[in-house]
# Entry
Amino acid sequence: MKKKILVIHTGGTISMKEDSETGTVTPGKKNPLTESTNQLLNLADLIVVEPFHLPSPHITPKEMLQLKKIIEEKMNEDLTGVVITHGTDTLEETAYFLDLTLNTHLPIVVTGAMRSSNEIGADGLYNLISSIRVAIDEDSKNKGVLVVLNDEIHTARNVTKTHTSNISTFQSPQYGPIGIITKRGIFYHHTPTTREFYDIEDISKKVVLIKSHAGMDSSLLFAINQLNFEGVVIEALGQGNLPPATIPGIKSLIANGIPIVLVSRCFNGFVQDTYAYEGGGKKLKDCGVIFSNGLNGQKARLKLLITLAKTNDLNEIEKMFQA
Ligand code: ASP
# Structure
């Protein structure tokens, strides 16, 4: 029986064209990928949907939730897998959102392109073909949401965009890809050890992400407290430390019951309660700050949005961030 793949086009450079006179890149009237669909039909039967056509900086958790619902609706139609095309700027966030909120063994692959459809060396159609090949491969089952570009397979949890324009932009710092794609096949060399699933129907909380720096004080934290945010993620220094002048702001947020999740602004490693000086990780943990191991800031923010859709209990949220 021919395999059946749900292809969801959402926009991004992968479905844009470059204007040869101005060099600017924009979405056209027709998605160049839907025009290429015939070339893909010998790989699998395709169900193609295009719920929206957005550059990925326009994507919000609302669109991510819409994608989750589309996949859930179609999941029992004998699908072999799902491929989503997406702008690369926020691709890792949509992929991680779906990873946390979909409960399926089916391969779900998110892909994009760094060059638009009519540029020399355009990578969109190639990445789409690679993604369909990954989605129909038996070994891709039960691995969570995957991100496929440039002949590599990454997990949604670890992958991040590392370069503004290079086609090998998607990397998984500290871990590397879990598989590669060659002309002959799909080869996995690692299997993810943890899977998480949060059953949510709605996403409505306000969570802010801020980055720490030398000389940071509490002013932004006090302002956040006034602005009715329901959660805060801070990219902390090193192993999870903050300048001492931020402590009054941290304490005021925690006194208001607002969860603060700490990640590191370093690309590799975990945050820990190692240092006991003023502003050090040990002191922050004692104040009630939640430590998140290994996630980057933008993914920790999404995870906090999702966990807040389930509970306001800080202990419960802390447990979810230890997963
Ligand atoms: N700015 C574009 C977007 O994310 C970049 C891309 O798709 O590669 O929509």
Remarks:
- The two ends are 38 Å apart (CA to CA).
- The pocket of aspartic acid is lined by residues 12-13, 55-56, 87-89, 112, 114 (CB under 6 Å).
- Residues 217 and 245 are 5 Å apart (CA to CA).
